[in-house]
Amino acid sequence: MSTIHKIGLIGAGNISQAYLKLAPLFPGTKIVAVADIAPEAAKKRADEFGVRALTVDELLKDEEIDTVINLTIPSAHYEISHAILSAGKHAYSEKPFALSVEDGKKLVAEADARGLKLGSAPDTFLGGGGQTARKLLDEGAIGRIVSGTMHVMSHGMEHWHPNPGFFFQPGGGPILDLGPYYIAAMVNLIGPVTHVAAFASKGFEERLVTAEGPLKGKTVPVGTPTTINAVLEFKTGAQVTLAASWDVWKHGHVNPIELYGTEGSMLVPDPNFFGGTVQYSERSGDYIPVDTSTAPFGKGNWGADQGHANYRMLGVADMLDAAEQGREARCSGRVALHALDVMVSILDAAVSRNVVTLSTTVERPAPLTAADAERLTAAR
């Protein structure tokens, strides 16, 4: 990027820390202000990182800011993203992109009409793990993908998040909260989905909060499915199963994503993270491990032991670079809309007990090359 883009955040919750800490990795981005519906939360976060605390209205009207990152709760994503675009600013949203496909389509249309860029998390598939797997697949390492499995299982969020209620309401649940990572990874690796079938249920009607905080010992109601089993059919003909649950105490699914091809199999790292080890086999041979820590955005840089690769803000940087180059962003609104369509269709299929045909499609995002990575991280 040739320009330093001035960025504002709307939403000062837990996730805002990662964006603020990691923005300096991308010299073309500079977060200058934080806003929140709770002014005290905005001030606390702004003071922590030495940026301005503004009201939402002030931030949207600020002429210095050309891009806004939407970190509000899922139910507010559409309204806030639409307000950002209406203010003439590029918009990047945390996942999920919106809660309905109709709202997602409106956002894409609004951005196009205004000549603005629209993007959405997750950007983890741009990391060393996702891009190494993509390169191997594109090179034919395991042939044509025939089928695969995805597993995302735990016992929910109430044991670590101090205010987990929204996770268990529409817009949350394992499909809309964690599903975006898995669906975006699959779109990157295989391409668009055409049809889905699914079953869903709630394991519990309420959840006991055990995380430290004011809600510890209290219960929160469950208003969305927490166990979902789905089958996704891709345009390529591949069939991939997805098992997503917050009702599981323990399981043995070590590999979150497995892909089975005509010439071998591949184990893909956890799409919730940027790094990890990719493994693939030549037909029925032993798995060949490929360390991605030396790949762009694969090196560990996060956590107490610096063992996790975390490059949140990569999607924002790529979106703004796309704006300068006149190309499609890799974490574009269109990719996010298609992922949303997949997830909503899964929930619809579970209710109707019918196979659902998706109303959207999308091209696979372009691979992120070493040259692209160098441009995004080049000093200004």
Describe what this molecule looks like in 3D.
The protein has 380 residues and is α/β, with parallel strands linked by helices. It contains eleven helices and 17 strands. The strands form three sheets. A nine-stranded mixed beta sheet has the order 16-15-14-13-7-12-11-8-17. A six-stranded parallel beta sheet has the order 3-2-1-4-5-6, with helices on both faces. Helix 2 links the parallel strand 2 and strand 3. The longest helix has 20 residues. The radius of gyration is 20 Å and the shape is globular. The relative contact order is 0.17. The model has no long low-confidence stretch (mean pLDDT 96).
What's the helix and strand layout?
Layout (H helix, E strand, L loop, with lengths): L4 E6 L3 H9 L6 E7 L3 H11 L2 E3 L1 H6 L5 E4 L6 H10 L3 E4 L7 H14 L3 E3 L7 H11 L6 E9 L19 H5 L1 H11 L3 E9 L4 E3 L10 E3 L5 E8 L4 E7 L11 E5 L2 E5 L8 E5 L5 E5 L22 H12 L7 H20 L3 E2 L12 H8 L3
Parallel strand pairs: 1-2, 1-4, 2-3, 4-5, 5-6, 7-12
Antiparallel strand pairs: 7-13, 8-11, 8-17, 9-10, 11-12, 13-14, 14-15, 15-16
Helix pairs in contact: 4-5, 5-10, 8-10
Protein name: Dehydrogenase
Pfam families: GFO_IDH_MocA, GFO_IDH_MocA_C3
Organism: Kaistia geumhonensis
